[in-house]
């Protein structure tokens, strides 16, 4: 699935947005979509909607922003089902903006199964850049669609939880949540990590 236009492809666009509440420590989420699909899913961290929109002035300079629960409802419904443990795979059109490399990495992240993790090195090999795990980390950091593009499923080579734009408590919660609700079918893949970097078997 093509994830979206390349970075620098600026155009006037209408963005429908909405704010939804998620379980702690996830908190408030800011969602915005174009006619093509979801462009942003971000942790608000006590920011106002006005500040969230202002934060995208550079990448969407001519955007028209309009509040719309109706247009975001299909997305919020799937997110709610995910947080309840009843949804393991999102079926939503996405429209992120990024470089070719970023879009390739984000596409690879979407292929990591629910309840499993991969290392930065694993993802680097998947995208044909085995010597560039650091670049994978940077692409993870720039992921504009949290949770649905599951950068939280990428961990350190030693099994430890490493940097996450949403903060370690959220990353830990997401990994534990998915481990709890993953279907027990043989090998669940990787080891999940505790806060201290200690490995433990997936549940």
Write the layout of secondary structure elements.
Elements: E1 14-21, E2 28-33, E3 38-43, H1 49-54, E4 64-67, H2 69-83, H3 100-109, E5 118-119, H4 120-126, H5 133-141, E6 154-155, H6 168-181, E7 192-193, E8 199-200
Parallel strand pairs: 1-4, 5-6
Antiparallel strand pairs: 1-2, 2-3, 7-8
Commentary on this structure:
The protein is an alpha/beta fold. It has two domains: 14-83, Double Stranded RNA Binding Domain, CATH 3.30.160; 100-200, Winged helix-like DNA-binding domain superfamily/Winged helix DNA-binding domain (Arc Repressor Mutant, subunit A, Orthogonal Bundle). Helix content is 30%, strand content 16%. It is built from six helices and eight strands. The protein has helices spanning 49-54, 69-83, 100-109, 120-126, 133-141, 168-181, and strands at 14-21, 28-33, 38-43, 64-67, 118-119, 154-155, 192-193, 199-200. The chain has a four-stranded mixed sheet with strand order 3-2-1-4. A two-stranded parallel sheet has the order 5-6. Strands 7-8 form a two-stranded antiparallel ribbon. Helix 4 crosses helix 5 (133-141). The longest helix is centred in the middle third of the chain and has 15 residues, at 69-83. Residues 185-203 have low confidence and may be disordered.
